[in-house]
Amino acid sequence: MNHWLTHHPVPRPPDPHDDWNLRARGETPTQRLDRNYSEILQEVRVAQTGVQLLLAFLLALAFTPRFGALTVFERNLYVASLILGAAATALLIAPASFHRLFFQRRLKRQLVRACGLFVQFGLALLMLSLSSSMLLILNVVLGTGPASWFTAGTVGWFCLWWYIVPLWSRARHARRELAPAAWQDPATRQAPTPATRQTQAPGQFPDSAGGPQPRLPRDVDPRVHPQLRQDVRDVRSHRPGGQE
After folding, report:
1. Torsion angles phi and psi, residue 7, rounded to 5
2. CB–CB of 112/37 below 8 Å?
3. First vs last Cα of the chain: how many Å apart?
């Protein structure tokens, strides 16, 4: 039984994103996973710059002459900032280690999912480390009261642009699930008549009723087969407003 499971894995259910990327970008599921992993690495490069500078500052702070004058509360803040910064660094570097251990194992889909979680949690720890560092510095400069208010404002500012605005934008532009009719077999679609081809403008495709449709969106790969381009245009015509 175990031998059969090893050589005959349970088939994975179809992913609607794979279908859309095949039609809109001309990407196979493997190409899509490669692109997703490359995008994650670009995000990690942006975040690593901030976490490396912060960690270097915190490591050097312990060897300054002023460090011995810190209170117990300020020392606890320093330790918390240092631990959070180190944890954020570990998570933001984890995609490299995961990729090396998953190399040539045909586990790219699991790699992309794991690395996405690493980046999300790493950014959250980075925000906490920055906030505790701000509280430490402001507490030394301004005192506990003003430091608490400024730190709360800093946390709110990070949450606004890192989480609230992206989630609001995603919810605002959320699209309803595509109707099953939009993915019908291309062979069942009515072919355009010769008269329709004559009245059709360049770059336009006829719909099932024979009338011209708007031009294809710019993000449709021109290398994709024309019938697949028509499928993408038909799918987008079922969305609210028929727009991206």
Report:
1. -95, -10
2. yes
3. 48
